[in-house]
Each structure stands twice: as C-alpha cells, then as structure tokens.
Design goal:
By secondary structure, the chain is mainly alpha-helical. It has helices at residues 2-18, 23-30, 38-45, 55-80, 84-94, 98-107, 114-133, 137-157, 165-172; strands at residues 49-53, 158-162.
Length: 180
Amino acid sequence: MMRLGILLAAAALLGACGRTSPPEERANAAAPAASQTPQSTLAALDKRKPLPLLPMMANHQKANMRDHLVAVQEITSALAKDDYAAAEQAAQRLGFSEQMGQMCTHMGAGAPGFTEQALAFHHTADRIAASARRKDHAQALVDLGATLQACTGCHAAWKQEVVDEATWQRLANAPVPASH
C-alpha cells in the first residue's frame, strides 16, 4: 500500500514537471498586481464578514478580547483547583451586564448580526458563573466549552475592519462617539 502511495506521488510530480508555461506567464502568476498590498491580499483571502470600527473602537475591542482570554485562563486554573469562588468571579467578567450590552450594541452598529452573536457569547459565560456558584464542576466545564465555542464561532465569522469616521457614520447610522 505504501509503495502504491509513493508511485502515485512520483507520477503526480512527473506529470507536473511535464507541464510548462512561457516564462512571462509563470512570472505573472507568481507576482501580485502592483496595486495590491500585503494587507489587501490578506483581506481578499479572509472571507469573514467585516466588523467596521473606528481605530479607538478596534483597539478597545482587542483589549477586551485579551481580557476575555485572561478570564478563560483564570476560570480554567480555578476549576483545576476546585476554587469555585475564583471561577465565578472570572466568569462574571465575561458575563452579561448592561454596560457590556451597550458596548456590544455600539461595536456592532455597522454590522448586522454581530451584536446578537456577541451578546449570546456573554450569556454563555453567565452559565459558567452559575455552575461555579453551585460548585458543579462538570457543568462548569461544559459551560466553559460552550463559551469557548461561542468565542471561536464569533472569531470565525467576523474580522475587524478599521474605517474612518465618515464610513462609520454611514454604516452604523449613528453619531461618532463623543470621546473621539
């Protein structure tokens, strides 16, 4: 069976070597268009939906994402030690609050569907806190898994797209934040 695999691979390589194209065709295929930048090439490859944000909003969101990762790490460490109070406290940082709801609504104003997905994530974290409060180790782990699934689902669906103020106003149909 292994010999068959080696023979098939060798045949594929030989077949590929037999196909040639003129040097100018090969050069054009390898070089991106002069107007393309590495960033525009990446943007074209990344098929996730854009989440338009002003620069300060994008920076704020990334800081929140890093804190979310710290909270997940703290939850994991606390559950490993059966420290339910610490797990609950860390989960509450991820959980829903009125302030978090307002922030998610504002961040998602230019991207239909983002706010709902973000709020669903925060509500999954509420379940971790409730399980930790009950000292239900197994359920807290299940709830942590659901929260992480919500995290990865959101990151798989959305990418930040930093925009200028005029674009933000047009997409979000909202005034620019007062602190800007």
